[in-house]
Structure to design on (979 residues):
C-alpha cells in the first residue's frame, strides 16, 4: 500500500520526528531504542522521542518508503535477536535532502526579514 | 509493565503485533523516576499512547477509506444498490422512530411537563371517563393537597367576527391558572389574571400565533382591539408564541373561563377538564390515592349524584389513545422488519461481492495483510456504505414526515409535523453504525477467515457453507416481508369490514355545512325557527335539491349529546342510568339524510310548543324499551319534558363505524323553551340533491348571507367526506404499513435475485455439464425456480408463524378480523411466491441459455 513513487517534495514539510529519525539513520542502520538515544544526543537532550511516537513514525515511514527493514542483520556481536533494525532508503535520503533545502530556504527568508541575528 | 502492555491495546492489533514487543522493551529500559515524577511519567505515557494510538487508527482509516473509495468507484452498481438499500432501511426506521418519539416520548413543550396531570371524573359504572362539573372541580381543588396549582379548561367552538367575514374557530376557555402552569409566555401582551375570571369583568381574549397572523397579519398593535365572539365583544390582551398548542392542536384562541353561582348547582353537568401540577415532592401515586379519598368523601356528602363518581388522573404526556399508541408501535415494528431485511440484503450483497473479490483478498492476505486488517477494512466499508445510506435515509425520513401527519393525534398539544431534533439525529447515527456493523460483520468474518484458503482451491467461489449462510439470509428477508404483508392484509381486511359497515344513512349526493347560531342573539326559539325556515326554503328551491334539513349535530361529527331516559315502564336505577343521543331536527331530516322511517311519521312543522311534545325514536330504542310491542303513542321523558313517540327511524352509527352507538331520539326543533338547551339548537344543515350536491355551496352561502349577514358558514363537507374521515386515520396507517411492506417485498426480491444470480454463476459449469448430458432447458429452469420456491416456502412458513404473533398484538386494530385470517395468509403467501418467481426470473433464464461448450471451456 506504499504510495506509488511520489516526488520527494510531495511529503514536505516533514514532521520533526520523521526528519530526526532520517538524520539518525543517515549514519547507520539502527534499532528503535538506538534511534531514541541518538536523537536525544543529537539534540542535546532537547528531543526525547517516546516509544509511541517513534513507532508510529516508523510505521508511516515504512509505508512511505523512506526507510526499510534490511534482511541482513548487523555483526552477531552487536545483534540483538529481539530487535528490528531500520535503514534509510535512497528515496528517504532524497526526502531528507529536500526537507533540509526547504528549511535552509526558510532560514534565508527569515534572515532577510531580520528575524535571525548572528552567524548562520 | 503489565499496565503499559494493557495500554498498548489502544493500538490497532496489527500495529501492536508489529511493534508491541519493541515498545515494551524500550519502556522497560527507560529511567523510572520514583514518587511524584513517577506519577507524572505515567500520566505523560498515558496521553502519549492515547494520542499515538488514535493517530495510528486514523492512519489505517485513511488508508482503508482511500482503498474502499477506489474499489467502490470501480463497482458503481453495487455501491448504488447498497446505499439505496441502506437508505430505505434506515430512513424507514428513523421516520417511524421520529413519530413514536414525537407522539409518545418527547416531553411536551411545557414547564415541568412531567408534573402536569389531567383530572377527569371516573364513572366506573359506565366504564367511562367524563369531564368534571364545576362544583366537583371546586371541591377537588379545595380538598386536595397534592397539587401546586389546579386550573380548568374546556374546548370551545365559536363564531369570531374580526373583519368582514365571520369565521368559525376552535379555541379553549381557560381559568387563569392554566397558562402560568404551562409556563409559556405570550409574545405580546399578558396572560389571563384572576380578575379576568370574575363575572362582570370585561371579556378578554388571547390569540394563537397563527390566528394573529391570519386575522391581523401579525400587527403588533392588536392589543386592546375588540373582536366579536358569538356576538359578544372581547378585548385582545395577548398573543401566544408560534408552536404553542393547548389543550389540542385545533385550539387557536383562548378566552377566560368564568363560573357564575348557578354553575355550581348541578353536579351532573360535566363540561370542564381539570389540569393540575403536582407538588415537587409529591409522587403521582400519592395524588391518585389522595383523590380517591377526596372523591370518597364527596360521594358520602352527595350520594345521589356522586355515589359512583371517582377521579381519573392521567399524566398529561400519557394521554394518548391506546389505538394511536399501538399503531405507532406497530409502525416501529414494521420499520424494524424493513431494516432487518435491508441488513440481510446488504450482508448478501457484500458476501457476493467478497466472493467475487476472493482472489484479490487472498493475494492481499498473502502479502501480509492480517486477518484483523481485512475484517477491519470490510467493516469500515460496510459502515461507510451505511453512513452514506444513513444520510440519504434521514433526508428520506424528513421528506416522508408530512405524509405521516395523520398519525399525530389532533387531541395532543403538538404541531402537526414533528420537528427533527438532536435525539432523532443521534438515533439515526447509532442506527447507522449498528446497521453497518450488523450487515458487515458476517461477510467480514467469513471473508477474513476464508481468504487464506482461497488461493489454494483455485479461487472457486461459492463454497457450500457460504451459500447456506446466504440462503438463510434470504429466508430471513422473505419471512420478515411475510410478516409485513400479512399484517397489511389483516389491516386491509379490517378496513374493508369497517367500510362495509352500514352507517344507517345514505351518504351519497349530499352536502352539509354548519351555521352555529350564537347565543344570546338567538336565545328565542322563534328567532331560530325563522332563520331555519328562511334557509331551508331557499335551499329547497335550488335546482336539483331533493331535500334539506337542519339537525343539532350530524352523526359521526358529534358523537355525544347523550341524555338520560326516564320511562314509566322502567324503574330508575341510578347506578345503571341509561342514555340516548338526543337531536333536535327540522321536518325532512330523515329524507335528507337517507335514514329510513320504519313506521309512524316524521317531525312536522305543526309540532310546536303549543302541541304535545313528540319524539321519533330509533329501532334499537324501541327494541330496548318496548320489546315486541308497538311504541307509537308511548310516553317517555328526556331533556326535561315528557314526549310521545310518533315515529320509528332506522338506527344510525352516531358514534362512528367502529363503535356501538346509544339508541337515538329525535325531537322537534320548535319544542324547546326560549334560552333552554343552548348547545342543542340545530346547527348542521344537510342538503340532498339529484346531481352534484357540492356545486350548491355558493348558492347555500348566498342564502345564509341573506338570512343573517353575520352568520358564519363552516365545516362544509359531504356526508361521504364524513364517512370517509371515519376510516381516514386507518387508511393512512395502512398506506404507511403497506409502503413498508412494499419496500420489504422489493428488498426481498433483490435478495432472491442476488442469491440466485450468484448461484447460477457459480454453477455455470455444472449446468453446462448437465445440459451436455441431456438435461433439457426446461429441467434447468425448473431446478432454478425450484430453488427459489424452496427459499420462498421456508420464508413463508417461518413468516406465517411470526405474522400470527404480530397479528395477535394488533388485534385491537383489526375490527374483529382474526389474526389467523386465512385469506390474509393466503394472499400474502401468493404475493411472496410471485415475488420469488420474479426475483428468480433473470437468473433462471440465464441458466437455460448456458452453452455446454462455453461453460466447460471457462474451466
Amino acid at each position: 500500500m506504499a504510495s506509488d513513487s511520489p516526488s520527494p517534495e510531495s511529503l514536505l514539510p516533514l514532521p520533526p520526528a520523521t526528519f530526526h529519525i532520517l538524520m539518525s539513520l543517515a549514519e547507520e542502520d539502527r534499532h528503535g531504542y538506538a534511534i531514541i538515544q541518538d536523537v536525544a544526543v543529537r539534540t542535546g537532550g532537547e528531543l526525547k522521542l517516546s516509544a509511541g511516537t517513534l513507532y508510529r513514525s516508523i510505521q508511516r515511514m515504512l509505508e512511505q518508503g523512506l526507510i526499510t527493514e534490511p534482511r541482513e542483520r548487523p555483526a552477531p556481536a552487536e545483534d540483538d535477536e529481539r530487535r528490528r533494525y531500520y535503514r534509510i532508503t535512497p528515496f528517504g535520503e532524497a526526502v531528507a535532502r529536500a526537507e533540509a533545502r526547504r528549511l535552509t530556504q526558510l532560514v534565508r527568508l527569515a534572515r532577510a526579514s531580520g528575524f535571525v541575528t548572528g552567524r548562520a | 509493565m503489565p499496565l503499559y502492555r494493557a495500554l498498548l491495546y489502544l493500538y490497532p492489533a496489527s500495529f501492536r503485533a508489529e511493534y508491541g514487543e519493541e515498545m515494551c522493551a524500550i519502556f522497560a529500559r527507560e529511567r523510572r523516576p520514583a514518587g511524584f515524577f513517577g506519577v507524572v511519567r505515567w500520566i505523560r505515557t498515558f496521553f502519549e499512547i492515547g494520542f499515538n494510538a488514535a493517530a495510528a487508527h486514523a492512519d489505517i482509516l485513511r488508508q482503508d477509506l482511500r482503498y474502499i473509495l477506489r474499489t467502490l468507484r470501480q463497482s458503481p452498481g453495487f455501491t448504488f444498490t447498497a446505499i439505496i438499500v441502506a437508505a430505505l432501511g434506515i430512513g424507514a426506521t428513523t421516520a417511524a422512530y421520529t413519530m413514536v418519539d414525537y407522539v409518545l416520548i418527547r416531553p411536551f413543550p411545557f414547564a415541568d411537563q412531567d408534573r402536569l396531570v389531567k383530572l377527569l371524573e371516573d364513572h366506573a359504572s359506565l366504564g367511562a371517563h367524563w369531564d368534571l362539573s364545576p362544583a366537583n372541580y371546586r371541591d377537588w381543588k379545595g380538598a386536595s393537597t397534592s397539587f401546586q396549582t389546579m386550573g380548568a379548561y374546556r374546548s370551545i367552538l365559536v363564531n369570531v367576527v374580526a373583519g368582514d367575514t365571520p369565521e368559525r374557530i376552535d379555541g379553549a376557555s381557560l381559568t387563569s391558572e392554566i397558562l402560568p402552569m404551562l409556563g409559556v409566555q405570550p409574545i405580546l401582551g399578558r396572560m389571563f389574571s384572576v380578575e379576568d375570571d370574575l363575572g362582570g369583568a370585561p371579556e378578554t381574549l388571547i390569540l394563537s400565533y397563527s390566528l394573529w397572523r391570519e386575522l391581523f397579519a401579525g400587527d403588533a398593535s392588536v392589543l386592546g382591539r375588540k373582536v366579536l365572539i358569538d356576538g359578544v365583544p372581547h378585548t385582545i390582551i395577548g398573543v401566544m408564541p408560534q408552536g404553542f398548542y393547548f389543550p389540542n392542536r385545533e385550539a387557536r384562541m383562548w378566552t377566560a373561563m368564568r363560573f357564575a353561582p348557578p354553575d355550581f348547582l348541578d353536579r351532573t353537568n360535566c363540561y370542564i377538564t381539570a389540569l393540575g401540577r403536582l407538588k415537587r415532592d409529591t409522587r403521582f401515586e400519592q395524588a391518585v390515592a389522595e383523590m380517591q379519598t377526596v372523591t370518597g368523601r364527596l360521594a358520602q356528602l352527595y350520594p345521589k349524584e356522586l355515589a359512583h363518581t371517582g377521579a381519573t388522573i392521567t399524566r398529561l404526556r400519557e394521554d394518548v389513545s391506546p389505538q394511536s399508541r399501538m399503531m405507532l408501535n406497530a409502525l416501529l415494528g414494521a420499520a424494524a422488519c424493513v431494516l432487518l431485511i435491508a441488513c440481510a440484503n446488504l450482508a448478501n450483497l457484500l458476501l457476493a461481492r467478497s466472493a467475487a473479490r476472493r482472489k484479490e483478498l487472498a493475494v492481499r492476505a498473502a502479502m501480509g495483510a492480517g486477518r484483523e486488517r481485512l475484517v477491519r477494512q470490510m467493516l469500515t466499508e460496510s459502515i461507510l456504505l451505511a453512513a452514506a445510506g444513513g444520510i440519504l435515509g434521514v433526508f428520506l425520513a424528513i421528506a416522508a414526515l408530512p405524509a405521516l401527519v395523520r398519525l399525530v393525534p389532533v387531541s395532543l398539544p403538538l404541531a402537526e409535523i414533528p420537528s427533527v431534533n438532536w435525539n432523532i439525529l443521534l438515533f439515526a447515527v447509532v442506527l447507522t453504525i449498528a446497521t453497518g456493523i450488523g450487515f458487515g460483520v458476517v461477510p467480514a468474518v467469513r471473508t477474513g477467515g476464508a481468504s487464506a484458503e482461497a488461493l489454494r482451491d483455485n479461487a472457486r467461489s461459492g463454497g457450500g457453507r457460504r451459500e447456506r449462510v446466504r440462503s438463510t439470509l434470504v429466508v430471513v428477508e422473505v419471512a420478515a416481508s411475510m410478516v409485513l404483508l400479512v399484517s397489511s392484509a389483516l389491516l386491509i381486511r379490517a378496513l374493508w369490514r369497517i367500510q362495509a359497515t352500514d352507517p344507517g344513512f345514505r351518504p351519497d349526493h349530499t352536502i352539509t355545512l354548519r351555521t352555529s347560531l350564537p347565543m344570546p342573539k338567538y336565545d328565542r326559539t322563534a328567532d331560530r325557527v325563522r332563520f331555519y325556515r328562511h334557509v331551508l326554503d331557499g335551499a329547497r328551491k335550488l335546482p336539483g335539491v331533493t331535500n334539506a334539513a337542519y339537525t343539532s349535530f350530524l352523526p359521526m361529527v358529534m358523537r355525544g349529546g347523550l341524555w338520560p331516559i326516564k320511562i314509566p315502564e322502567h324503574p330508575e336505577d341510578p347506578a345503571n342510568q341509561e342514555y340516548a343521543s338526543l337531536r333536535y331536527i327540522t321536518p325532512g331530516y330523515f329524507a335528507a339524510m337517507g335514514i329510513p322511517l320504519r313506521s309512524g311519521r316524521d317531525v312536522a312543522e305543526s309540532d310546536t310548543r303549543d302541541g304535545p311534545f313528540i319524539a321519533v325514536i330509533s329501532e334499537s330504542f324501541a327494541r330496548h324499551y318496548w320489546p315486541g310491542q308497538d311504541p307509537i303513542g308511548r310516553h317517555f321523558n328526556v331533556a326535561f319534558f315528557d314526549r310521545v313517540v310518533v315515529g320509528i327511524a332506522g338506527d344510525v352509527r352516531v358514534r362512528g363505524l367502529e363503535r356501538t352507538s346509544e339508541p337515538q331520539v329525535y325531537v322537534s326543533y320548535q319544542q324547546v323553551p326560549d334560552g333552554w338547551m343552548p348547545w342543542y339548537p340545530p346547527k348542521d344543515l344537510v342538503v340532498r340533491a339529484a346531481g352534484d350536491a357540492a356545486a350548491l355551496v355558493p348558492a347555500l352561502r348566498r342564502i345564509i348571507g341573506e338570512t343573517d349577514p353575520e352568520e358564519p358558514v363552516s365545516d362544509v363537507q359531504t356526508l361521504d367526506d364524513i364517512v370517509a374521515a371515519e376510516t381516514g386515520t386507518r387508511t393512512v396507517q395502512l398506506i404507511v404499513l403497506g409502503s413498508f411492506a412494499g419496500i420489504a417485498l422489493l428488498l426481498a426480491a433483490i435478495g432472491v435475485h442476488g442469491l440466485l444470480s450468484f448461484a447460477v454463476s457459480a454453477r455455470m459449469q455444472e449446468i453446462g455439464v448437465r445440459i451436455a448430458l441431456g438435461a433439457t432447458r426446461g429441467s434447468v429452469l425448473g431446478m432454478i425456480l425450484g430453488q427459489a420456491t424452496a427459499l420462498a416456502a421456508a420464508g413463508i412458513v417461518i413468516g406465517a408463524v411470526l405474522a400470527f404473533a404480530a397479528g395477535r398484538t394488533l388485534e385491537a386494530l383489526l375490527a374483529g378480523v382474526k389474526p389467523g385470517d386465512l385469506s390474509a395468509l393466503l394472499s400474502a403467501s401468493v404475493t411472496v411466491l410471485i415475488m420469488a418467481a420474479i426475483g428468480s426470473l433473470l437468473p433462471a433464464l440465464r441458466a437455460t441459455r448456458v452453452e455446454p461448450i462455453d461453460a466447460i471451456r471457462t474451466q
Observations:
- Residues 35-74 of chain B form the longest helix (40 residues).
- The interface with chain A takes residues 15, 18-19, 21-23, 25-27, 29, 45, 48-49, 51-53, 55-56, 59, 63, 67 of chain B (CB under 8 Å).
- The mean pLDDT of chain B is 86.
- Chain B is about 50% helix and 15% strand.
